Amino acid sequence: MDIVFSSASHHALLFAFTAREAIRVYGAAGSEAITDAVKRYGLQRGRRMAMRARIDCNPINAMTYEMYSEWACFPGQVECTADVCDGVCRLHYSRCPWYTEWKHFDLLPYGKLYCAHIDDAILEGFGLHEGRLTSSRIDHHQYCELEFHDPVYTEENNAFYAAEREKLGTKAIMPWEYHVGHLFACLKYSLVQRFGAGSEQIIKKALKDYSTQFGEGALRLIPEWADLDFNELPAYKSYRIEEIDQISNKTDER
């Protein structure tokens, strides 16, 4: 059986362990620092998503927002349905590993800092301004719902972008080591900016809790990935270029 060293569960608990310690040590100021980290993380992620969309000559809308998501969870970890009709697009999440892990470990109050800001930050980074989170499971709703309003949201367009999503495949997906490293880099940056040397005890305790939960192998991966420039887009080749290449190859064969 393979050992998993990085996943959405690792991501969720690294965040909660760090938020818990920051608030324990600095109270409201710790909460503010964690909020700043979430916003930084979300903006950077959204901007990378938008970069890929532009490279592929796709518009910025809710259908491409879902299309260029950078993460993929294990089967069964996420349950999401999309409803697009008459100028409204709604994404309903009834299950996700962040909520699952935070609830299991009694960390929902800390996870709430993530859920309260992450979607707005990613949307802003992506350049999508007509959408918002309208309900959240962490606030005891049945599901988390993102709702968008624009005439472009029609069943016909949704079908078109569903086909484009199939062509894109997993090209926009980044490994969980990347996401965990990115999260840690943003948390560390925000804590150091606000508390200076005082951030060291927070980070040390959070990483100790993380290592206790996931082991030294998982812990060692964090600094290996956290030093990347997350404002930059990792190497990406448009799926449209691949389509052109395939057409050219077929033409040459004739």
Number of strands: 4
What string gives the helices and strands in order?
A: HHHEEHHHEEHHHHH
Number of helices, where a helix is a run of at least 4 consecutive DSSP H or I residues: 11
Approximately how much beta-strand content do the residues carry? 5-15%
Q: Any low-confidence stretches, pLDDT <50, length ≥5?
A: 246-252
What's the alpha carbon Rg, rounded to whole Å? 19 Å
Neighbour order of strands in the largest sheet? 1-2-4-3
Largest sheet, strands/sense/barrel: 4 strands, antiparallel
Query: Helix share of residues?
Result: 55-70%
Number of domains: 1
Query: What's the shape?
Result: globular
Determine the structural class based on helices, strands and strand pairing: alpha+beta
**Mean of pLDDT:** 92
Distance between the termini: 47 Å
List the helices and strands and how they pair.
Layout: H1 8-26, H2 28-55, H3 62-67, E1 79-85, E2 88-95, H4 97-104, H5 108-115, H6 118-126, E3 131-135, E4 144-149, H7 155-168, H8 176-195, H9 199-214, H10 216-226, H11 239-253
Antiparallel strand pairs: 1-2, 2-4, 3-4
Question: Can you put this structure into words, describing what you see?
Answer:
The chain is an alpha+beta fold. Strands 1-2-4-3 form a four-stranded antiparallel β-sheet. The chain has helices at 8-26, 28-55, 62-67, 97-104, 108-115, 118-126, 155-168, 176-195, 199-214, 216-226, 239-253; strands at residues 79-85, 88-95, 131-135, 144-149. A hairpin with an 8-residue loop joins strand 3 (131-135) and strand 4. The protein has one domain. Helices cover 61% and strands 10% of the residues.
